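Worked example 4.2. Below are the chains of a multi-component assembly; read each line carefully before continuing.
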Amino acid sequence: MLDRREFVGRLLKDRGNLMVLTGLGTATFDVAAYGDNPLNFYIWSAMGCTAMVGLGLAMARPDCRVAVIAGDGDVLMALGSLATIGAKQPSNLSIICLDNAHYAATGMQPSATAGSTDLAAVAKGCGFKNVVIVAGLDDAEAVRRQMHANSGPMFVHARVDTISQPRILPTRDGYGMKHRFLQASAPPR
Amino acid sequence: MGREFLSIDHKSSEGDADDWPDRIHAVFKRFNIKQVGHVPDTGHARLLALCHNGDEINDVGLTTEAEGPALVLGATLGGQRAALLMQSSGVGNCINTFSLLKNCGAPCVLIVTMRGEFNDFNPWQVPMGSITEDTLKLCGFRVYRVDRETDVEEVVAAACDMAYGGNLQAAVLLSQRMINRMKGGHH
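Applying the procedure described above to all two chains together yields the following structure tokens:
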């Protein structure tokens, strides 16, 4: 089973100006574990919305690369958003789903992906141009390069382990994050 | 893309530029709104067609209105203004996702076509239609209501000015009686 922290760390290597949006819970802790960054935006409410925030951002900034890192629970809560994204085909957007098949933040209750739901198949069915099923840590480098390559929309399905990781809590200041994100991502004049 | 936004009564090349959907479209362009999220609604059909057929606005068809506030936050983080179009029933689907707008200071204008309030063929629209205004207020929106076609442009412009000028969320409720006067309304 894939070590989620190690996998995320490899994706964030040499991130440059990559914009990273994280969904509620463990995905946020995984990204924060590698250090805060003004181009990180952590979503703390409206579970399920992370991918759609990614769509709005990707459409507003076609010159940038946007990576959404979210858990299976987040993606499951708004499966329809994959259809919405598929219809718009944003080439600069990647959805990285860290699927541990459980709701880790609330007591490890199993999610639908513990059973018969295959999120990679859902993404393919919604028209994602590039669907990657991660077999092991060695796949991380190829995913990392594709996140920067403008060849999306890409959906990455990574089944990760349920080993408990240190909970790293980054900022929860939405206004502060918005301002620093806009400043850090301002287009060159 | 394979989707056509043709409505027999509201082809964008026909119709009166004084029609209220055209006035809303003009206000959207004047305020430099770049993304408009929507779940299709008969009352909004002409405005949707205008947004889709023009070059200025990126229209996004949502599978549920709940996706809309997230789209708005994303656009905001990308430096763009976004608005949402929906029916009153859709407002209920957004209660939790509206929190993104409040938590992150994302301005938003919401244009709502009212259902279940006047001559609606479907009484099941009444529960949500009757609480739409209060729901929006509880969610932190400034709420404006329009009953006459001649007020649409001024009120929508005022809502946009409040929202984008003051970093707030504003909703304009278009009365069902007014929409029904337009051909193809919610009868």
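Take a moment to check your reading of the output against the notes. Residues 115 and 129 of chain B are 5 Å apart (CA to CA). Residues 1-15 of chain B have pLDDT under 50 and may be disordered.
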